[in-house]
Amino acid sequence: MTVRVGILGATGAVGQRLVQLLAPHPEFEIATLAASEASAGKSYREAAKWRIDAPIPDDVAETTVVEGTPEEFPEDVPLVFSSMPSGIAERVEPAFAEAGYVVSSNSSNARLDDDVPLVVPEVNADHLGLLEVQRDDRGWDGALVKNPNCSTIAMVGPLAALSPYGLERVRVATLQAVSGAGYSGVTSMEILDNVLPHIGGEEEKMETETKKLLGVFDGAEVQHHRVDVSASCNRVPTIDGHLENVWADLSDPLAPDEAREVFAEGPSIDLPSAPDRLLQAHEDEDRPQPRLDRTAGDGMVIPVGPPQETTEGLQFDCLVHNTLRGAAGASVLNGELLVDRDLV
User: Fold this and answer.
1) What 8-state DSSP symbol labels residue 165?
2) How, if at all, do strands 102-105 and 308-309 pair?
3) Which of 47, 104, 150, 258 has the fewest CB atoms within 10 Å distance of its CB?
């Protein structure tokens, strides 16, 4: 069965990635593209100013863009992917959910709301159980599901694999690509020959979202993990790929070679866009590298470097393609999970 889908924020950087991923998708058919009032009425080719390093899909290019309101969407489009700015999404997404649409969103608003599932399918698919609570509490016929921040996604898979060994404290330093700031987010004069040692809001997202993702759903709410997370986020002059240096303190001893086996074994899930394994365990100490490893598994794999022993646990490096697994690909994967669980 093919599910007709719509995209909110279709002309932006993540919206274009959504179009790239959904146009050839085996389960989804792009039926509606929505953007701002300024783009409405134009063809998608004209409105999007295509920036992806692949041709714009022919069967989408001449689609007329509409405004992002439920009234503009046909009723036979049950699933909507959202990549709008959070200030707009916090108003628009609930309107779609109230109107009966299921929204899989990459926008940062509502990620920590108690009744909104924040999901990485390989890590915490059971958190979709919150949708029953959400619909009861809000009276929605539709639903709202979120994927986490792109930098959070990079480390939460390895941390989930280590969680059975008594995850107590995490410290992380990120080296984040400029595409994470959007097409015009960082000027060349700021970033060339430079590193920006702060990214507004990123540290807080990593420190809070990780606890929710690693938490336990008890049938009524998610009990957040008690791990203490400290983050320092830096912008570096690479195009795509967030590299992260992670220190994980564990209560139970775990040797580096054992940890590498833990990384290599999982986690995984059987969905069309999911790789065979979420994590790719490298043996070479100088891997992963953004230019060499960001497209592993079509950009949906999290490469992890060889763990090193510390006084309290382990240190490892990990990488995410921030606009694929870290953004558009994460939303698509959540959409596939919703269909798989008969929630669409």
Assistant:
1) G
2) unpaired
3) 258
Cα(first)–Cα(last) distance of the chain, in Å? 12
Catalytic residue ranges = 150, 242
The three-point CA angle 301-1-76 to 5° equals 105
Please answer whether residues 123 and 157 qualify as being in contact, where contact means their C-beta atoms are separated by less than 8 angstroms. yes
The backbone torsions φ and ψ at residue 62, rounded to the nearest 5 degrees and listed phi first, read: -95, 5
Domain 150-321 architecture: 2-Layer Sandwich (3.30)
Instruction: Reply yes or no: is the peptide bond before residue 267 cis, omega within 30 of 0.
Output: yes
- The ranges assigned to domains in the chain are 3-149+327-340, 150-321
CB 71 within 8 A of CB 38: no
How would CATH label the architecture of 3-149+327-340?
A: 3-Layer(aba) Sandwich (3.40)
- Report the C-alpha gap between 336 and 216 in whole angstroms: 22
Q: What is the β-pairing status of strands 228-235 and 167-176?
A: parallel
Q: At what angle do helices 150-162 and 202-213 cross, to 10 degrees?
A: 40
Tokens of 295: 């497209």
Going residue by residue through the chain, which has 344 residues, state the pLDDT in tens, using 9 for 90 and above.
899 999 999 999 999 999 999 999 999 999 999 999 999 999 999 999 999 989 999 999 999 999 999 999 998 999 999 999 999 999 999 999 999 999 999 999 999 999 999 999 999 999 999 999 999 999 999 999 999 999 999 999 999 999 999 999 999 999 999 999 987 889 999 999 999 999 999 999 999 999 999 999 999 999 999 999 999 999 999 999 999 999 999 999 999 999 999 999 989 999 999 999 999 999 999 999 999 999 999 999 999 999 999 999 999 999 999 999 999 999 999 999 999 999 99
